Amino acid sequence: MAEIVVKYDDKVIEKVVIYKRRVSIGRTAENDIILENRGVSRKHAIIEFNESGAVIIDNESLNGTFLNDRRVTEEMIRDQDMITIGKYHLLFHNSAEETHDEESDYDGTMILNTKKQKQRLKRNDQDKDIVRRAGSSVLVGEDNSDFKEYALEREVTTVGKAKFVHIKVKGFFLSGIQAKIVKEGAVFSIINIGRKGKTMVNGEPVQSSLLRNGDLISVGRSTFRFVEASR
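Request: output the structure for the sequence above.
Response:
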């Protein structure tokens, strides 16, 4: 059984264990997951389960459905993916860790005009343009980087201090090849193969980590943002 952890303002407000093959998400009471906020459409999105896994489908909502901060219409969901709908964040788990023992007064959906929503939409448009130009997922140089954008076209991309690596990084006590980014189909992972603690994803040291859209990768003092092409 899958589980969805619903958060609002970074506070967990509900944990939903999924028993159905089709789960509706929206503002009104007929939905399986009810998000009571005018930035959410009455019937905002659907999660469908099939033999391949779970799929999030946007129901032509006014404010959009975001998967790992990328606006989507229909996309496969992986374990630990974050779905954003209005001001809510829905963390998806492939399996539930534990079991758990009124309709809106408004008919219409309010257009979200918050600073965060504007930033999210602007970033989404910029990222779509980046991956369109590259034709692949991309690393965007954020800090102490020698490039602005790097297309991840290889099966293995090496990162480190050596002259022969694909991506050179800055910092002390780094290995010649400190990390590698591995592409398997449309899925990317980063693996630390050099000095321990020198490769980080979203501020946390990793030995091996699946990459999701918007992840911040730091190797030494160099930081990059992972922009994922459509799955």
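Residues 98-106 have pLDDT under 50 and may be disordered.
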